[in-house]
Amino acid sequence: MKAKEVILGVTASIAIYKACDLVRRLKEKGYSVTVIQSSESEQLVSPLLFQSLSGNKVYRGLFDMPHAWEIEHINLADKADLILIAPATANIIAKIANGICDDLLTCVVAAAKSPVLIAPAMNENMYKNKITQINLKKLSSLGYKFIGPKAGKLACGKTGAGCLSEVEDIVKRVRDFC
Fold first, then answer.
1. CATH value at residue 38
2. I want to staple 4 with a disulfide (CB 3.0 to 4.6 A). Which of 81, 92, 110, 113 is the partner?
3. Where are the strands (E) in 27-149, listed by range?
4. Stretch 101-105: mean pLDDT, rounded?
């Protein structure tokens, strides 16, 4: 039986360290995990780490030269049983909500027929911002699913809403979809 394919979009939140554990836990549960990493997130974690954890190529730029001729954003969207974005910044949420397709991850999401699960992670002020809330409601009304965020200690040192959900909780939600 072929492993279910989770396309994991990783964006530049300080919670990115949990994405490493998320890849490992999904692999332990028998999923194939392919990471699409935003260029900004590469400032926090090297693509080599995600490649080592997933055992798969890490996709990065929209115009990176493919190993074999393929239209990567379409092929990635077609092979996905689920697209999971964790951590999801306010920026990526806004881009998806407004149909902006200016990087590989947003193009894959736009081309996807599979469910999309978004795990927000950002400062509480950003999460509670009216524009972010409008974007979340818009995506929810379009069928996008969310997990979190939860309350906890934020990168700024304060406590509040905006923390990435626990890895085990995200894995359980993934299992609900595939």
1. 3.40.50.1950
2. 81
3. 32-37, 82-88, 116-120, 145-146
4. 94
In 57-158, beta strands by DSSP E: 82-88, 116-120, 145-146, 150-153
Tens-digit pLDDT profile for residues 48-80: 999 999 999 999 876 565 555 566 778 898 899
Count how many domains the chain has. Answer: 1
Q: Enumerate the active-site residues.
A: 156
CA nearest 167: which of 65, 55, 29?
29
Residue whose pair of structure tokens reads 């999801």 in the numeric block: 88
Q: Closest Cα to residue 161, out of 135, 126, 130, 137? A: 126
Beta-carbon neighbour count of residue 140 at 10 Å? Answer: 13
Q: 111 phi and psi, to 5 degrees?
A: -90, -5
For 93, the 3-state DSSP assignment is: helix
The whole-angstrom separation of Cα 128 and Cα 31 is 33
Q: What whole-number distance in Å separates Cα of residue 26 and Cα of residue 41?
A: 20
